[in-house]
Design a protein that fits this description.
Layout lengths: L4 E3 L3 H8 L13 E4 L4 E7 L3 E8 L17 E3 L10 H6 L1 E6 L1 E6 L8 E7 L5 E11 L5 E10 L12 E2 L1 E2 L4 H5 L6 H4 L11 E5 L20 H5 L5
Length: 235
């Protein structure tokens, strides 16, 4: 799964990533080092025209009576996204990009009771985009929400011993096709949902303070020193 991620890059770097996808990047951005479910996430939605906007992480289907269902819908599996009732509609027509520059997983270490958090990013250090879905929800009291979910797939060789899932990272050349609402068939879209090449990624052990969603600062992604790694009680 993907349960936490980061985005600390500038609007200029995001605009460069999006390339020919013309969106308004003049949007207030604050660096985020510990983005968690139910929080606002920066996404590109394929509305009438592609729109860079914040959505709430955790998809709430239009038919849901209670928006709390979104806490269980932060991820969608690539293998079943075209079939599951909550996701098959958005998969056909409401697809999005999640903007990120890294994500976290927790690795089980031999002889340790607690898992070691790691930060995963591209070796280039550049931002990237997860494949996602979005939906609008209208409550009985008039509450309006636009929510979203990250699609996950099988891990590449770098991440296979850390977790059995990884978020789908789309190459920039696939952005336009993923956002194009004319593409609705699973046999066209499914091939885009592959694991990202392991040789373009890197993994760094980081402090366990990221376990606490209240911590959102650069220390969350600070690489552990050898002493800290060998003596976790220091963290």
């Amino acid at each position: 799964m993907c349960g936490r991620f980061t985005l600390a890059k500038s609007a200029e770097e995001i605009e460069e990533l999006l390339g020919e996808i013309e969106v308004d990047c003049d949007i207030p951005l604050a660096p985020r080092y510990n983005i968690a479910p139910s929080q606002p996430v920066l996404t590109v939605l394929n509305r009438e025209t592609d729109a860079l906007t914040f959505t709430q992480w955790g998809l709430v289907p239009p038919w849901a009576k209670d928006p709390s269902i979104g806490s269980r819908m932060i991820n969608a599996r690539a293998e079943t996204v075209a079939e599951k009732p909550s996701f098959r509609g958005p998969f056909k027509s409401k697809r999005c990009l999640f903007l990120a520059d890294g994500f976290y997983e927790w690795k089980k270490l031999e002889g340790r009771k607690t898992k070691q958090p790691v930060h995963i990013r591209l070796k280039s250090g550049k931002p990237f985009a997860f494949a996602g879905l979005w939906a609008d929800w209208l409550g009985a009291d008039g509450t309006e929400l636009t929510t979203s979910t990250i699609i996950t797939t099988t891990p590449n060789s770098l991440l296979a011993d850390i977790h059995n899932r990884m978020p789908v990272i789309l190459p920039p050349g696939a952005f336009a096709d993923w956002l194009d609402p004319q593409f609705r068939e699973a046999d066209v879209l499914q091939p885009l949902l592959a694991s990202y090449p392991s040789d373009e990624m890197e993994v760094t052990a980081v402090s366990r303070q990221v376990n606490n969603g209240a911590h959102d600062d650069p220390d969350c992604i600070r690489p552990l020193s050898e002493i800290e790694f060998l003596q976790p009680d220091l963290l």
